[in-house]
Here is the input.
Amino acid sequence: MPLLVFATIIARPGAEAALKDGLHELVTQVRTEAACQLYELYESAEHPGQFIMHEIWEDEAGLLAHSQMPHMKDFGKKASEWLASPPALTKVNL
Here is the structure.
């Protein structure tokens, strides 16, 4: 069953541009994953530095595999300096 995910990602003050650049780079890599059906990045017009990732995965197993990908682990290391808090995920079964 496809899984819809919204990830809310908030930049640490002063790290907005670095986070945005890192997220744009990440989008390109994630879209090549077999279980990825959609991976879109948006930036809030009301709250600069707040990003929303709109994702659709083949299933929960696909999302789990995504979290273990080398590019996700690399991004996690870099992003620890850019994030105000861990991303908040909302999952919806389609």
